[in-house]
Give the backbone structure.
Amino acid sequence: MLVVRVVPVGRARLVGAAVRRRLVPALTGSAPTASILTTPARCNSQLAADAHRRRHKNVITGPDAVALRLHRGHLVVQHPRWPVDDAFFSLAWLRDHCRCRHCYDNSTFQRKTDVRQLSSVGNPLHFNVNSTGTVLEIIWHDGHQSEYSMRWLWENSYVGARHREQRQSRLWQRCLWDGRRTSAEDLTSVVYDSFMTTEEGVRRLMKGFLTHGAAVVTGVAPTPAATQAVVERVGVVQHTMFGGVWEFTADGRHADTAYGRDELLPHTDGTYYSEPPGVQVFHCLAHHGHGGETTLVDGFAALNSLHQADPAAYELLSRVPCAGEYRDPSRRLHMVGDGPVIAHRAGAEPTPDSLLRLRFNPYDRAAARRGEPAEVEAFYGAYGRLTELLWDARRRLRLKLRPGTVILIDNWRVLHGRASFTGRRHMCGAYMARSDVLSRARSVGLLI
């Protein structure tokens, strides 16, 4: 039975109704009996003032009640299943996130909202929760009607951001490592058949990739076509000046030190691009000779050490640009990419907890044409300090790539190198955009 209690509020200066009800808990699936408490709404300014003064006292009773009120341009929600006392939803944000057919195209997942109108969103005429307790309903000052799933609001708004991060950490956590405590056997390895035929195989590989910055698929046919199939199971091959899925030997075909036999110290690829490739894929198709072991270094672990030992160097490398370049006059190529050595997530504090990308390739550094003269010497000191950490042999994880083994490396985090070798070594590989890989991780439930 639905029980309705009406609380008188005095004079009838009504422009709508504010509704309080016990909500069917959207996050738990249980369904208690709903009781609705309805109060007439005053004019916008009076309503906000009254709601702020009452702070729900003498308005809503009962431990499971959901309370709604206006406060200084926000709709404030008190939800018994949400781990916050007051959830403040900006009225502009709510209007921007209306999902009706006039504001959002659900077939293309694109907005139709005119953002120029969002800076002057007035108080709504009416707001309440629907009879099933699952949907917030708003009638705006211009008569437009919006509906929001309470679950959707929690899962997609800034209100629940911190708690989404906590849920995310329970799915996987980044594991920093170095060669003293980690070996190739610690990297996640998935058999080709499982990877290609089951989503669980993809999920295992992606979880290992996110955790350690590298993961392996075994049992792959030693051909470029099979390698491409592995890549396309995760995302899309990123085409560059080297091609799509490329092959190389020590033939000097390109103006790049990778096309030789000498040792390559750990580095990241593509520092000469505006956005370096997100993932590096390698597959050794054949090797008739000795040496050529792949070396990996966890760049984020080294950056964590740098931040602890020399915060000033860390800060400088997070701010001062260091350009990379690739030149091949025979092909009329001169690529230049610019950006700091250390990049963090947008809007976050520049600390190791918010690391996004490391651009480190001393081989491909361009002429330093930017920066403050007073910081030049300090930059070389900071870059040298980081190089000492990254090239410390104790940090290196070594593995011998053999035909049938494909390795995926996070090029924004993990550096790769190669020992010198003899004989003929036939490799193939590819790049992938980071967005494609993260998209695949979301599809298997690893990113919220």
